[in-house]
Amino acid sequence: MMKITLILGTALSLFGVDGYSVYQKKCMQCHVEMMEKQEVLKHINTLKAPPMVEVSNRLRENIIIADEDQDVKRRVTIAFIKDYIENPSVQYSMCHPMAIEKFGIMPSQKGKLSEKEKQAVAEWIIDRYAKVKF
Question: Which of 37, 53, 115, 118 is the most exposed place for a label (fewest CB within 10 A)?
Answer without folding.
Answer: 115
